[in-house]
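Data availability (excerpt). The following record was deposited with the supplementary files.
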Amino acid sequence: MNEPAPKVSVIRMYEARAEIYPREAKGWFSSWRWVCVWLTQIVFYGLPWLSWNDRQAVLFDLAARKFYIFGLVLWPQDFIYLALLLIICAYALFLFTAIAGRLWCGYACPQTVYTEIFMWMERKIEGDRSARMRLDKQPWGANKIARKTAKHAAWILFALWTGFTFVGYFSPIDELGRSLLALSLGPWEWFWVLFYGFATYGNAGWMREQVCKYMCPYARFQSSMFDPDTLTVTYDQKRGEPRGARRKDQPTSLGDCIDCTMCVQVCPTGIDIRNGLQYDCIGCGACIDACNTVMDKVGAPRGLIRYTTENGMRNALSPKEIRRRTMRPRVLVYTAILLLIIAGVFGSLAMRTNLKVDVIRDRGSMGREVEDGMIENVYRLQIMNTDERPHRFRISVMGLDTIAMASEDVVELAATESRAVPVRVRTAHGKGEKGSNKIMFEVKALDDDDMQVKEKAVFIVPR
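Predicted structure:
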């Protein structure tokens, strides 16, 4: 007799994603979020089209290994500035997070910005929240196909424009545009336009809140930068509970929360802020705007959901007392370090000369005695004119009696040119000690006294 087959149960390791249909929020915080959207996108899309000294104002020319940032020209040797920039960004993130939580995530993060733009296009094509929900439940028909096609076409065009602009920071955008119109982009240019466009389309159109919840590491370690005086989006549980619907003209023992769920409907990550602070919250303040609108309608004070601190909520602190606690030791330390690094970077850039020189000895030819009895050493000077004007430079040497240049001592370099210049240096026989002697090369622009560099070297006298 055959035994019945055992029942098979499926245990899901991960919860299936529930589609989120954020309602459009209007209010003070939503307006500021759109201000950030406009500012960041005007800078991103507009910057490559600006001209400076007859070239693109901001261009990271990887092929030529030159990085143009308005009047500044950086070379691979200036990589330290990139490291310092990353350090500044890290400390700024620590500072903003310590003061106001995920301020970056809610207002200026590219994922937030592009998701906001994509959702705006979605609302314009498919309608508001309820219309989108109805559309998704409808069977496929002409109307649904037309709206879905139009939405994805708009997303793809915008994403490709974004990818094109991104590549325009690394390849002159004028030439890039002409090549695109002629469909003659290089293989790497095609790859990065399509790759960055695909990433924008996928992240902002499809993945959305999943990037913030599962892919972004910041969501996981943000709590280490929080303390009881960090501003976060908070639901006032004492004032709001017990929640429930009520009539405006009837007395009730319920709290101010009418359980309308508007705070949930406007949340881009789909959380319920009334359950307390969660790592999914990006601090955008959309729930604050929605709740304040509802409070106005029911005749209750605003601020049932608001930016406040753990100490502020626990001890019923006034806004003035909360602001006073902002200047606490952690914030002061972050601010001091950040200001010192910024001052150091700008001070270094201000004192930076547009001339770089590296001295390399000719290892195939040590010190030697030439036909006239002089001792000669051969060097190669790597001279970089990082200025955007051509200059003539005079090369001189010092450090030993009678030491002098035995080769051409004037060299002309075009704007932003780097050249290896072979030089021969001689001194009279008997001058200097046997072995190595310290000398100094000086390279100085003939038309600019501030453009000069001194570099140490070694002169070998045969034993």
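Summary of structural features: The chain has three domains: 28-223, 230-324, 355-461.
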